[in-house]
Amino acid sequence: MRSLQEKIINEGQVISDTILKVDSFLNHQIDPEFVMAMGRELANRYAGEEVTKVLTVEASGIALALTTGLALKTPVVFAKKKKAATQDSQTYSTKIFSFTRQEAVDIYVNKKLIHARDRVLIIDDFLAHGEALRGLADIVEQAGATLVGVGIAIEKVFQNGGQALRKKGIRIESLAPITSLSGGRVSFV
Amino acid sequence: MRSLQEKIINEGQVISDTILKVDSFLNHQIDPEFVMAMGRELANRYAGEEVTKVLTVEASGIALALTTGLALKTPVVFAKKKKAATQDSQTYSTKIFSFTRQEAVDIYVNKKLIHARDRVLIIDDFLAHGEALRGLADIVEQAGATLVGVGIAIEKVFQNGGQALRKKGIRIESLAPITSLSGGRVSFV
Predict the structure, then answer these.
(1) Please, what are the domains in chain B?
(2) B33·A70 Cβ contact <8 A
(3) Does A85 have pLDDT greater than 60?
C-alpha cells in the first residue's frame, strides 16, 4: 500500500535495526481516516472470503481491526491479556511471548464470541516474530473455526514470523512489508 | 442515546450491584457500526467546540475514541499503561488506581502528541469512580491544553466519579447514564 509506505518514510522513526516506531499515526496517536483506508484495503483483499469475524489482540491491534470490521460489516473481537493463567472453562486461552516486554502473557477470548462456524480474519498492526498471531491462530483452532487469513499493517519480514506462518499454509496480507531497517533506513519488499 | 440503552438491556450482563458487562458489543467483542453510531453522537454533542484532539486510554476506550475522531476528523491519542513510574522527560504521566485490577498503574502520553494549543475531548467506554478520566484530565493540564469535555458510553452515576469531575467544572456527556444495577436490573436516569 503505497500511501502507508510513504507515511512510514515520512513519519516513522527507526529506533534500531529491529525497531520502527509509528507512534504518530498507528501505535500511540491514530490517524482515523488513514486507519480507515488501511482497513478498507485489507477488507478488499479478503473480499469474497465470507469473513464472519475479525479477531485481534489488545491494545494496538484494535484500531485497524475495527476499521477492517467496519469495511467488512462483521463483528470484531479483541483477545484480552492477563498475567496468570487461571483455568477457566468459559474462555479459549493461550500463552504468547512478548519480545517487546520480554515476558510471557496469556491472551484469552470468551468462548461465546467465536464459534465453529465462524470464518475468522486475524488483524494486527505489526508482524515481527509472529507470537501474537500464532496465539490468535491457536485460539481460532481451539474454537474449531476456519482461519481465512491474516491482515497486517507493517510486516518486518527479516524477523521471520511471517515465513513461519506462511509455511503452515496461512495466508498473510501485509500492507507494508519491510525487508530491512539497517542504517536507519526503511527498505520495502 | 436510546439505542444504547436498548442494547444494554438486551445484551448487557449485570454481574453484581456494581458490575455491568457489555462484552458482546463494546468491551471484548465490538459491533463496529454501533460504535460508529456512538462516536457520531458524541461528535454531534461537541460540534462547534473546535476539538483538535481526542484522548483516551488503552485498551477498551480505543474503539469509541477512534469512531469519535473519525466523525470529528481529528487525530486520536491513546495513553499507554505501564507498571513502574520511570522518570521520563519525553512523556506526560500520571498514576491512576484501577478498581477492576485493584492496582495502581501509570499512564503516559508522549509530549509530542499534545500541545498547549490543543482543544482536547476525552473519551472512554465507562465512567465509574472516574480514576482514568481524572488521570487523562491531569495529562491535558500538564500539556497546558484546553479540556473541552468528556464523552462516555456508559456512566455508572451511583459510583460518583462523574459528580466529582462535574464539580470541577468539567462537561461530561454520557450516552447511557445508569442510576442503579440493584437486583440484576439496569435503571437509567
Answers:
(1) 2-77+116-188 (3.40.50.2020)
(2) yes
(3) no
